[in-house]
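Task: sequence design from structure.
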């Protein structure tokens, strides 16, 4: 408290020195200290103390005062802004199906969440639109909150949340104003936010900013065949791009050829989202062929690719996975389709020198009959993958049968080099014939053998809700893509 007031001594210290002292405080403590007095508040929100601002919002009305306070104080000068817009469970209502009272409560809860979420997005964008110092902008949302809850609230209540779509239009306009006004932007990332980017958004960037941009990601689970966020012609402006993330249906052969041009800096990271909905509407004939990938790799020798596939048929994956792709990470997430052993075999053969991350999961309705990749095969495809891909360090499995003896083999093959081995308990099965000759608890024996193989303590995943990779694959992919792109 000696720094407050108008007396002598510490209270007479220059503001620059007070700012330096406060720079040693954690972010949370800075916020608490800002309530002590006016002078502290002025010093604590000196731009040098807030070069970056990372916010995780849950669509709660109680978040509004702090969000408005932070954005008004920091929005005009923050250089690195990362915001995750999420939504909590809208209404905790339990009742019989078709109950009109339950439906009414559910509808009202959804309307409130939608209204709060839109206001949060507007609050962030309104306070950033005049920030000319912005260097990194990253926005993530739960796909489209409007589309997500439309089935619960209907068009009538939806119009109450955003009459005439005015808020959505303002959000899109604000996003373009931000891109127009920024002068130092190096990193632009917008994922699963249907309310923000439009096909005309990137045209708002000036040529100098587009020329200096190093990372660009525009990801969405949209299925609109006419919705293309960036074209090959527009990509030509981004000559210094080192990292790119797009929907696979937008990544055409022409775009690959643009990226392979000699007048550009080499591309280091490419993240692609493959969605069954967009594949069904956009022809695979326009996708890069093997010669396009090889030309791109010749120009970008250090290029590494990260793919996530949502409910994509195995036949389509066999078409997509060209030998020339330097595939380092792949993530399969499905509820309807299943990955085939043929796809896993193809990955093992083609990407054995690159693959470090392999994630396969399925939201199975029938918890007793998971797909078995080793069915009618001499060798389990996952064991072969582990054996052939010598750089594999992350393996996560849910919703597919993993036999206990194969899991032990995987642990022994990779040993301590396999940094992450996440397998859900319900995915593990035991051979009845082997159980007949064992006197010990099979689960205990499995845990012990896998731990010995890995050289560290290991346990099957008991609570699937504890891992984002299984419960929220879109968020996991977005966060991993960010880290993947930063690791250039």
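Answer:
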């Amino acid at each position: 408290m000696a720094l407050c007031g108008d007396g002598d001594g510490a209270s007479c210290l220059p503001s620059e020195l007070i700012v330096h002292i406060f720079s040693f405080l954690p972010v949370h403590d800075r916020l608490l200290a800002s309530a002590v007095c006016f002078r502290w508040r002025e010093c604590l929100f000196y731009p040098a103390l807030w070069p970056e601002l990372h916010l995780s919002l849950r669509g709660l009305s109680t978040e509004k005062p702090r969000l408005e306070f932070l954005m008004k104080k920091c929005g005009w000068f923050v250089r690195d802004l990362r915001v995750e817009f999420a939504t909590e469970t809208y209404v905790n209502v339990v009742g019989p199906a078709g109950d009109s009272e339950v439906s009414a409560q559910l509808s009202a809860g959804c309307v409130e969440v939608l209204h709060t979420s839109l206001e949060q997005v507007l609050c962030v964008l309104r306070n950033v639109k005049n920030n000319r110092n912005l260097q990194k902008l990253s926005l993530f949302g739960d796909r489209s909150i409007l589309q997500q809850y439309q089935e619960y609230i209907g068009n009538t209540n939806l119009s109450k949340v955003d009459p005439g779509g005015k808020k959505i239009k303002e959000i899109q306009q604000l996003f373009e104003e931000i891109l127009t006004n920024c002068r130092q932007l190096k990193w632009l990332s917008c994922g699963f936010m249907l309310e923000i980017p439009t096909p005309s958004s990137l045209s708002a960037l000036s040529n100098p900013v587009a020329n200096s941009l190093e990372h660009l990601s525009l990801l969405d689970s949209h299925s609109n065949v006419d919705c293309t966020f960036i074209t090959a012609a527009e990509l030509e402006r981004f000559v210094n791009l080192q990292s790119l993330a797009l929907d696979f249906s937008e990544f055409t052969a022409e775009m690959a050829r643009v990226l392979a041009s000699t007048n550009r800096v080499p591309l280091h990271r490419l993240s692609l989202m493959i969605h069954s909905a967009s594949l069904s509407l956009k022809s695979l004939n326009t996708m890069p062929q093997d010669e396009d990938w090889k030309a791109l790799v010749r120009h970008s020798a250090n290029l590494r690719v990260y793919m996530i596939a949502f409910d994509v048929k195995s036949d389509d994956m066999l078409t997509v996975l060209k030998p020339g792709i330097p595939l380092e990470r792949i993530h399969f997430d499905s509820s309807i389709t299943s990955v085939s052993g043929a796809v896993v075999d193809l990955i093992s053969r083609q990407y054995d020198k690159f693959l470090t991350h392999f994630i396969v999961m399925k939201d199975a309705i029938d918890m007793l009959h998971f797909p078995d990749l080793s069915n009618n095969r001499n060798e389990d495809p996952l064991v072969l993958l582990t054996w052939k891909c010598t750089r594999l360090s992350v393996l996560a499995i849910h919703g597919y049968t993993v036999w206990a003896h194969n899991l032990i083999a995987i642990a022994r093959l990779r040993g301590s080099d396999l940094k992450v081995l996440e397998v859900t308990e319900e995915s593990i099965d035991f051979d009845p014939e082997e159980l007949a000759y064992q006197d010990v608890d099979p689960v205990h024996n499995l845990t012990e053998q896998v731990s010995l193989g890995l050289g560290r303590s290991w346990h099957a995943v008991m609570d699937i809700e504890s891992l984002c990779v299984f419960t929220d694959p879109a968020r996991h992919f977005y966060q991993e893509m960010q880290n993947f792109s930063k690791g250039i």
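The CA atoms of residues 135 and 185 lie 4 Å apart.
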